[in-house]
Structures are given as structure tokens and as C-alpha cells.
Specification:
The structure holds 2 protein chains of 2 kinds.
Chain A lengths: L2 H14 L1 H33 L10 H25 L4 H5 L3 H6 L4 H21 L3 H9 L4 H28 L3 H17 L9 H10 L2 H8 L2 E3 H25 L2
Helix pairs in contact in A: 1-6, 2-3, 3-8, 3-9, 3-11, 6-8, 6-12, 8-9, 8-11, 8-12, 11-12
Chain B lengths: L2 H23 L4 H21 L1 H8 L6 H25 L3 E3 L10 H9 L4 E7 L4 H16 L3 E7 L4 H6 L7 E6 L2 E6 L3 H12 L4 E6 L16 H9 L2 E6 L13 E5 L7 H12 L3 E5 L7 H5 L3 E10 L12 E2 L15 E2 L4 E5 L8 E7 L4 E3 L17 E7 L6 E5 L7 H4 L4 H13 L21 H32 L1
Parallel strand pairs in B: 2-3, 6-7, 6-8, 8-9, 9-17
Antiparallel strand pairs in B: 2-4, 4-5, 10-13, 10-15, 11-12, 14-16, 16-17
Classes of the chains: A mainly alpha, B alpha/beta.
């Protein structure tokens, strides 16, 4: 089985199972509700602000509505991405097909890469289906499409990182629910670790901020493309895939 | 595993640890950090390639060591990734695609940041997690991107009382500049505060003022009526390091020369000298230029969109006993140089300065000294106000600045007012020294315009709102549910 075969098989699985549709439906219901509220709220604020002079901070549909929604999308996927990935390996283990795959000539790396890429592709389709947001904003106001591109790059990379975590937890168990819960736990820590200043020392909080998935994501949705953020997210994905690989390799014995 | 590859691996690990330790102690030495980290990666890469077969066997070994092998391989991979991230953090690229250009510094700040030539640390004392803290972090990241010699550290004032005491910091949002032995503090959490702190911090104790020579200018060493000996004496007494400068054989840079005085050159400047002047100006150099009508400085002044009048300015308001060719000025526009300045000044044989606003060049031209309304431009030399010679109040001196650049120039339409003959007359010396002080001191500070606040009104009509309410939170999710149901139904039929 080549990499493309594995991707095709996984994508077919997503198409024929209800999980991807349910997740997409839930995602769009939440984000759609936020979008509607943000649009109406923005319009009201404009009327209020028109009478109170010049605003002290920038108030544009891009910074208020779009950036806010991207932020929400990231947070929503902390909870939804594990549901997308929970079955990737756990299901193979439960249905005892893992033994077959472990003994097949397909390299384990291709197998994992195929699973990861398929889940990421489904995630990207879900994210891209939210493009109606900037399009609507462009119809009613004006949109900086470079900013939109930076934000969607951030969503794509952080989504990849979330899926790699989900894939890793899925290799640890044959129970999908356990994989999902573990994944949510890890992602919540990785997401909020930068903000968890509290009792941590100055040096520790600086270091934790460096490890946070949210920091590079927030930069990108704000329109900043920084090579450090991109390299951090890509290497994060690679490390998670490597860990998944080691777990499956040790499972062979 | 042979001995050489083993040594390579160990050396790679040690160098990697060394790179990490070095980066935390000397974060400004980006070249050294990168070289050590790259060397470590190369050695580790060589080790992996040389021992690939061995690694492969280890990875698949069914043994009690399997978990240990996995653990070691994971540590190795994480170590390599950390080194890659460390290298990227030294040399990286940023692009600001934000709508409000939030991640781009003003041109003045960029020039200041790029001009810093020694390791400089900025410490910020604020409230961790606060809005100012976040903004200063973003700003410091921008400064560091432009110049890796700038490093920064953040302290929560409440959680780091000892550190705050070390720098006598008592207020939130305090910035501390530290470079070598020099420590400067300032209040503020915005771009203007940081840029001005950098300017103050990087300013040398001795202010270097250079005086252009080589074109028959007033001589600095002469004590006769025409010389500028009194200028030299006055500025030296005030601690300025005033030296003559021949541009033909010398470098001219704002980091070395705080102020360049050009006092009425009589012979043309060479193209090379013009280029040096131009570069000095572009890098944010400060200039005090005195001219006696059109002459060798005309091409340079044209680059500021300034012209000097051909005819001398005569004024009925002059010192008793002199003729109208020496205008007397005793009231001044409100400028940083003439604020609270009450002394009279005289300008023998002065020429008017004319500024033709040019949006492309974008300079500001603020009048510093003006004649009375009873002046005229003496065209035929008879020293009498003839019909056709009347003029509006003439500008005899001006401050020229640019909203986005650091360059500042004070221009006088007369050089004799500072010559030995007139330097001590009335307030001439005070005005001259005020101009020098301002150019080297407060005038060297920048005023960074606050970040552009954009307000984009967008209205959603009742009809649009209704459409959005139906379509977005309900319609689109239903589409996905319908697609899922369709797939499920079709598969059920198979």
C-alpha cells in the first residue's frame, strides 16, 4: 500500500462515516452563531461609537470580527480535532487489523503519514468551508486578503499540530474515547500553557510561553507571519508523528 | 559503533548543550549561537548517518532495552528539534500582513534600532499578562528583529521586587536601558518611549560636533571679525567636542558625528561630498546650516525643497546706528529653540528662506526667525524701499524636519550673525547655542506618531441580519447534516 492508497482509504472512511459530517455541522453551528452575533454586535457598536468621537483602538471588521472568530475556531478545534482523530489507530487496534498492518510491507512511517494527512485534509476542508466569513465581510465592508491568508495558514498549521497530538494518543490505546480524552487533555495544556502564569516563576512562565501552541497561532491570526512560529509548529507535528511511530514500532513486539 | 563516530555523537550532544547554555547567557551573540548549534546538528547528523544501520537494529530490537531505546531516540529527536528552533530564532523572517500594520515600527524607530552597535538590554517592569506587557513584548520583538544586539527581559514589578530595587524602579510600565555600565530609565509602554529610551541610552557622553571645512567657510581658528573662533570657544566651554572636518578624506556617520555645522561655504562641494552629506541626512544626521544667499549649498537645500532668496533682506526694524541691511528681531514664533527666548538678535546681510511644500519629500518647515512686516528685498542696491521691492515678512531661519525620518536641520539665511563680530551682539550667541543644544539634545529625540487607529464602519441591515440568522448558524450546518444523511442513506441501500 502506498501513501496515496492509505490517504484514499482514510478519506473514503471519513466520507462514508457520519463523524466528519457531525463534526462539520457542530463546528459550523457554533462558528455561525458566533459570526451572526459578531456581525450584529459590530453594527450596533458602530452606531454607538459614531456618537462618541474617535475610538482609541482600531475597530475594523478584520480585527474585531474575523480575528475573534479565528481565535474561536482554534479553541473549538481543541475539542473537535481529537474527535476527528480518535479512531485513526485505536480503531485498527480494536478491530485487530493492526497486526495485519504491522506485518505488511508498508512502512510504518507511510502508514502514519497517510493517516495524518487524511485527517488533516478533512480538517482543512472544514476550515476552508468557513471562508464564507471573510467573503461576507468583503461584501459588506473591505477585507485585507493577505491578513486572511496569514490567519488561514495559522489555522492550518495549528490544526496539523492538533491532529498530530490526536494521532499520537490514538496509538496509545484501543479505546477511542480514551484516545479522545487524552488528546483533549494534552491540547488544553498546550493551548493554555502560555497564559498559565499564576504560580510559575518568571523564567518558567517565559519558557512555557515558548511551548504554547496558542502563541504562534495568535500571531498568525493577527496577521504576523514569523518563520519561528512556522518552524515551531512544523517541528511540533514532526515530533508527535515520531512519537506515534515509536509507540507503534514498540507495539510490534 | 566505532570510536570516531561515538566521539562525534558525544561532541554533537555537548556542543548542542553548549549552544543552549550560551544562548541563555549571551542571547545577543547570534552568530556564535548559530555556529555552535549548526556544528552540533552537523555532528549529530553525521553520527546518525554513520550509525544508521545500528539505529535500525536498535529500533526494532526485541529486548528489555526497547523502552530505553525508544526513550533515548525520542530525547535525541527532541534535542535536534530544539537545536533547529534555536537556529531559526537567531535568523528568521517576519512579514506583517495585519490590517492595521500592528507589527511594523515607524521609520524613525527602525533607524534608531538599526543604528545600535553594541549589546543593549531593555528591561520592562510591568504587570505580567497586562495589556501593556503584551504590547511591549510585541514591540521589543520588532526591535530585536531589526537588530539582534537588542535583547529584552520582562519583569512583573510585584513579583520581582529585588530586581526593581536594583534599578530603582517604583512605577509600573517602567523601561530600563542597560548597555555596559550605562543604565537609563523611562516611563512608558509604547513605541515612542522605547525609541527615545534607545536614543538616550546610546548617546555618548561626549557630543561630537563637526564643522565643515575646505570651501572657504568662516574659519574656526580665526579670531578676526569674520572668523568663528568665538563659536569654537563657546561650544567647547559647554562640553561639545567641536572639530573641523574635511569631507574629502573623512567618513560622515550619525553614529560618529552628532551634529554637522556648515557655515557658508564659498566654493562648490564635490559630488563625493554631496553624496556623503546626502547619506548623512538619510541616516538621520543633524545639521546646522548657515548660508549667505544662493551658493554651493543650493543643490543640497533643494533636496529639502528649500530655496534661498537672491536679494538681501532689508528691514526698517534695525539696530540704531546701523543700516536696514541688518534686521533686528525681537519676537519669535513658538518653536522648541525659541520658546522662552526673549533676547534680540541681529542678522547682517541676511537672505530670505523659501519653502515650496513638496508632498513627495514630506519635510516640515517651521519658521524660527522672521523679519518685521516693514522689510523689503533690496534688488538695486540703493538701500531704499522702492516700489516692487516690498515683501511679506521674510523667514531668516527655520527648523526643517521630517515626520518619518530622524533628520533634523536648523537653517539660517545668514552666517555672519555667528561670526566673531556679531556673536556677542544681543542674543546671537544664545540663539546659536540654543540651536546646537536642541539639535544635539531634545531635537535628537523623535516623536513617533501613535499607531494608526482605524475605524471602519459596517452596518448590517435588518434584512441582512435576518438572512444571516437563517443562513449561517442553521443553513450551513444543515447542509453538512443533509450530506451526511444522504451518504448514510445511500450506503444503507447498498
Amino acid at each position: 500500500m502506498t501513501l496515496m492508497h492509505i490517504i484514499n482509504k482514510e478519506i473514503r472512511h471519513y466520507i462514508y462515516s457520519p463523524i466528519a459530517y457531525i463534526l462539520a455541522g457542530v463546528f459550523h453551528a457554533i462558528i455561525g452563531y458566533f459570526f451572526y452575533n459578531a456581525m450584529v454586535g459590530y453594527s450596533r457598536r458602530v452606531v454607538e461609537m459614531s456618537g462618541s468621537g474617535t475610538p482609541t483602538e482600531s475597530f475594523t471588521p478584520m480585527t474585531v470580527i474575523f480575528q475573534g472568530l479565528c481565535n474561536s475556531m482554534g479553541t473549538i478545534f481543541v475539542l473537535l480535532a481529537p474527535l476527528l482523530t480518535m479512531r485513526l489507530i485505536a480503531d485498527e487496534k480494536r478491530s485487530r487489523t493492526m497486526e495485519f498492518l504491522a506485518t505488511s510491507p508498508t512502512p510504518l512511517a507511510s502508514f502514519l503519514a497517510g493517516k495524518f494527512l487524511a485527517a488533516w485534509l478533512v480538517y482543512l476542508v472544514m476550515i476552508c468551508s468557513s471562508l464564507y466569513i471573510p467573503i461576507t465581510l468583503d461584501l459588506l465592508s473591505r477585507v485585507n486578503w493577505s491578513h486572511v491568508a496569514a490567519a488561514y495558514l495559522g489555522l492550518a498549521l495549528v490544526g496539523g499540530a492538533m491532529i498530530s497530538v490526536g494521532l499520537f494518543t490514538s496509538t496509545l490505546t484501543d479505546k477511542q474515547v480514551v484516545a479522545a480524552v487524552l488528546s483533549i487533555g494534552i491540547l488544553v495544556i498546550c493551548w493554555f500553557v502560555g497564559g498559565g502564569i499564576g504560580a510559575a516563576s518568571q523564567r518558567a512562565s517565559d519558557m512555557l510561553r515558548e511551548l504554547s501552541l496558542y502563541t504562534p497561532f495568535s500571531n498568525m491570526i493577527a496577521g504576523l507571519i514569523d518563520l519561528r512560529d512556522i518552524v515551531f509548529l512544523v517541528t511540533f507535528i514532526l515530533i508527535m508523528l515520531f512519537m506515534s511511530h515509536r509507540v507503534l514500532e514498540s507495539d510490534r513486539w | 559503533m566505532n570510536k570516531i563516530t561515538s566521539i562525534t555523537g558525544v561532541a554533537g550532544v555537548l556542543l548542542g548543550i553548549g549552544a543552549l547554555a550560551y544562548s541563555s547567557i549571551y542571547p545577543a551573540d547570534t552568530v556564535i549561537i548559530t555556529v555552535i548549534a549548526l556544528l552540533a546538528l552537523a555532528l549529530l547528523g553525521w553520527f546518525v548517518v554513520a550509525e544508521f544501520a545500528h539505529f535500525r537494529i536498535l529500533a526494532r530490537k526485541q529486548a528489555t532495552y526497547l523502552r530505553l531505546n525508544n526513550f533515548l531516540m525520542l530525547v535525541f529527536a527532541i534535542f535536534a528539534v530544539v537545536l533547529i528552533n534555536l537556529i531559526v530564532r537567531q535568523y528568521y523572517y517576519r512579514a506583517d500582513l495585519s490590517t492595521t500594520r500592528r507589527y511594523t515600527l515607524a521609520l524613525q524607530s527602525m533607524t534608531v534600532a538599526k543604528g545600535i552597535d553594541r549589546e543593549t538590554e531593555i528591561l520592562f517592569f510591568g504587570t505580567e499578562g497586562g495589556k501593556e506587557h503584551k504590547r511591549v513584548r510585541e514591540l521589543m520583538d520588532m526591535y530585536r528583529y531589526l537588530n539582534r544586539k537588542i535583547i529584552y527581559t520582562f519583569y512583573d514589578l510585584d513579583r520581582s521586587p529585588l530586581k526593581a530595587k536594583e534599578y530603582n524602579v517604583v512605577d509600573y510600565n517602567t523601561l530600563v536601558f542597560r548597555s555596559g555600565e550605562k543604565v537609563v530609565t523611562a516611563r512608558g509602554a509604547d513605541e515612542e518611549a522605547i525609541t527615545n529610551l534607545l536614543i538616550r541610552g546610546t548617546k555618548r557622553k561626549v557630543i561630537n560636533v563637526r564643522y565643515l571645512q575646505g570651501h572657504n567657510e568662516h574659519s574656526l581658528s580665526e579670531t578676526d571679525r569674520d572668523g568663528y573662533g568665538r563659536v569654537l570657544a563657546q561650544l567647547s566651554a559647554q562640553g561639545f567636542n567641536l572639530q573641523p572636518l574635511d569631507l574629502r578624506g573623512a567618513e560622515l556617520s550619525p553614529t560618529q558625528v552628532d551634529l554637522l555645522i556648515i557655515a557658508s561655504p564659498k566654493t562648490e562641494l564635490s559630488p563625493e561630498e554631496h553624496e556623503k552629506l546626502w547619506n548623512y541626512r538619510e541616516k538621520g544626521g543633524k545639521l546646522l546650516v548657515l548660508v549667505d544667499g544662493p551658493g554651493p549649498m543650493t543643490p543640497f537645500l533643494k533636496t529639502f525643497a528649500i530655496q534661498v532668496g537672491d536679494e538681501p533682506v532689508y528691514d526698517t526694524q534695525n539696530v540704531a546706528g546701523t543700516d536696514p541691511s541688518t534686521p533686528l528681531v525681537n519676537s519669535y514664533p513658538d518653536t522648541p529653540i525659541t520658546r522662552s527666548f526673549r533676547l534680540s538678535t541681529v542678522f547682517p546681510g541676511a537672505h530670505g528662506l523659501y519653502y515650496k511644500a513638496n508632498i513627495m519629500l514630506g519635510f516640515n518647515f517651521d519658521s524660527l526667525v522672521q523679519t518685521s512686516p516693514n522689510n523689503w528685498l533690496e534688488a538695486n542696491g540703493n538701500r531704499v524701499k522702492d516700489p516692487g521691492e516690498e515683501a511679506h515678512p521674510q523667514v531668516l531661519a527655520a527648523i526643517v524636519s521630517h515626520p518619518d525620518k530622524l533628520v533634523k536641520m536648523v537653517l539660517f539665511g545668514d552666517s555672519d550673525f555667528a561670526s566673531n563680530a556679531y556673536f556677542g551682539v544681543a542674543g546671537n550667541a544664545n540663539l546659536f547655542v540654543n540651536a546646537v543644544n536642541w539639535l544635539c539634545g531634545e531635537g535628537a529625540m523623535v516623536s513617533v506618531a501613535p499607531a494608526k487607529v482605524e475605524f471602519v464602519p459596517m452596518f448590517v441591515s435588518e434584512q441582512q441580519s435576518r438572512l444571516l440568522r437563517v443562513l449561517v448558524p442553521v443553513g450551513i450546518p444543515l447542509l453538512f447534516v443533509a450530506a451526511g444523511t444522504l451518504v448514510w442513506w445511500r450506503r444503507r441501500r447498498l
